[in-house]
Amino acid sequence: MENNRLLVPSPVSGTAFPRWTVVVLVVAAALNMALDLLGITPGIAWATLVLTACAAGGAAASWVEPAFQRRIYTQPTATRLVLVFALPPVALVGGTIASLIVGLPPALLGDQATTFLAAMTFSVWLWSAAIGTSIVAFLDVAVSRLVGSLRPRLMIAIFALMGWVGAGGLGCAWVAWKTMHQFRANAAILDLNFGAGPLSRDQVVALFATEEGQLAAIVAFALIGILPAFPAIFSAAAKLADAVLERVHPLTEGFRAITSGELDVRVAEEGPSEFIELAQNFNQMAETLALARRMERSFGQYVSEQLLDRIREQHGAAEVPTALKTATVFFADIRGFTSMSEKLEPDQVLGVLNRYFEGIVPVIDAHGGYLDKFIGDAVVVVFNGPVDQPDHAELGARCAIDLQRKVDEMNAADAFPEVGTLEVGVGMSTGPLVTGNLGSADHLEYTVIGDTVNLAARLQGEAAAGEVVVDSGAAEALPADLPTHARDPIHVKGKAAAVTPHLLWPTS
Fold first, then answer.
1. Are the C-beta atoms of 242 and 69 separated by less than 8 Å?
2. What's the count of helices (H) and strands (E) in the chain, helices before strands?
3. CA-closest candidate to residue 131, choices 54, 243, 235, 226
4. Helix or strand or coil: residue 387?
């Protein structure tokens, strides 16, 4: 299809920067510095350190996601690959400088460096998050060229993050082990001034003197080494989730459009193989639905809208039950058209007929008539056919009158210059008839049969140009504002008794 609206993935917008973190940072830093100056117990000071560190980490997490999203994922492939390797050191240096500017002055005013250490949390988080971003970005740039499926991509990303966590823990454990060896080799190191630190000199000596203490210290340092990896995990997980949501979003928009009836939408077929296949299936579904709609519209040009609505209500089943019912049928035929058409070219004949039908079919639809068929230059219209219409006789009569008025209107507008004017005779009958599908299992036609239909055809032959003639059954069913005038009885083919025609139009 042409002019399709293409839905493509769009970067997921980051969350707004939480202003509360700034307030917490300022309040906690000021409180921590005041506690240092007043000599308050270390426990409270460490509590403020934790609070400050959490606020710094929250600020970094909220800032780094949208920043990295814009800087990394909106760049060309080559630029993105360079940024993948440059991002972690740049984040570390930039975050450290910012932390020194913010955290060092308050730390120099107190006896402890807790405010400085809290400020450095921002730098550590920024650096670790940059590593997580680089891992995902590298997978997107490099690994995606080799691995088309989403599942192995996620597995590789998880293993990479596990490696980063393990490296951090093993690195700090190795540092702890080397540090304890230095302590044992040079006891003078233990003469450091621990001041208000969490462990006294004697506690440190006792800790390193036993194997259990040494093991506990190594485990503690390993855990400390693992902690900085959590921002990387958080950042990588967020970006992996965003990568999946970016692919799901066009599909969600596409299904929303399909639900609202908009079938000219397509989803970009890109990304992991699973999403490519899903997009292909969606596009095929949209194309199939659009084709079905076009076929339904084309089908609607061959059958009445009433019958089409009946088929829709039956969810596509064309089964219309056979019924014996009282209904109204009229035939409308152009007088003398056969002789007129002999003087015209074939395209002129069809041109006249098509203009005539284009004028009268909307009149039939406006009155709720079922246009049963075209028979050359004649039309057969049924009321109380596929749709129940208790006032079918009145509807048929008013439709036949308006049809004659429409023909007069078209003649006045010189709609048929090839023949000058058209004159139509209408015969209508009301009575019992059989309605239902006629044909084979492969080709069906909804139609009406019976003596009432035959009588309407005979009365049409009795109607002069511009007249509407009805039978007694129709005349008796019409309201008072649609009077009829009985004519002399006539004998028609197929009926033993005489039939009395009634002139409905013109009224005088």
1. yes
2. 16, 10
3. 235
4. coil
Residue 128, classified by CB atoms within 10 Å of its CB into exposed (0-12), middle (13-18) or buried (19+), is buried
Residue 348: how many other CB atoms lie within 10 Å: 16
Domain that holds residue 388: 305-505
Distance separating alpha carbons of residues 87 and 129, to the nearest angstrom: 10
| Residue 465 in domain | yes
Which CATH number do you get for residue 406? Answer: 3.30.70.1230
CB contact at 8 A, 381 and 332 = yes
Omega within 30 of 0 (cis) for the link into 506: yes
Least confident of 23-27, 249-253, 317-321, 441-445: 317-321
CA distance 64 to 61: 5
Q: Give how many domains the chain has, as a whole number.
A: 1
Kind plus residue range of the DSSP H or E element containing 128 = helix 114-138
Range 78-104 average pLDDT: 70
Would you state the torsion angle of the CA atoms of residues 90, 94, 96, 102, taken in this order, to the nearest 10 degrees? -170
Q: How far apart are CA 232 and CA 236, in angstroms?
A: 6
Most confident range (mean pLDDT) of 87-101, 155-169, 316-330, 351-365 is: 351-365
Q: Is residue 484 part of a domain?
A: yes
Confirm whether 394 is domain-assigned.
yes
Answer whether residue 181 is part of any domain: no
**Identity of the residue numbered 435:** T
Contact 275, 247 (CB under 8 A): yes
**Alpha helices (runs of H) in 210-313, residue ranges in sequence order:** 211-226, 229-259, 273-300, 305-313
14-33 pLDDT, tens digit per residue, is: 555 556 666 666 676 666 66
DSSP-assigned beta bridge partners for residue 427: 331, 469
The rounded distance, in Å, linking the Cα atoms of 13 and 249 is: 12
Specify the pLDDT at position 315. 47
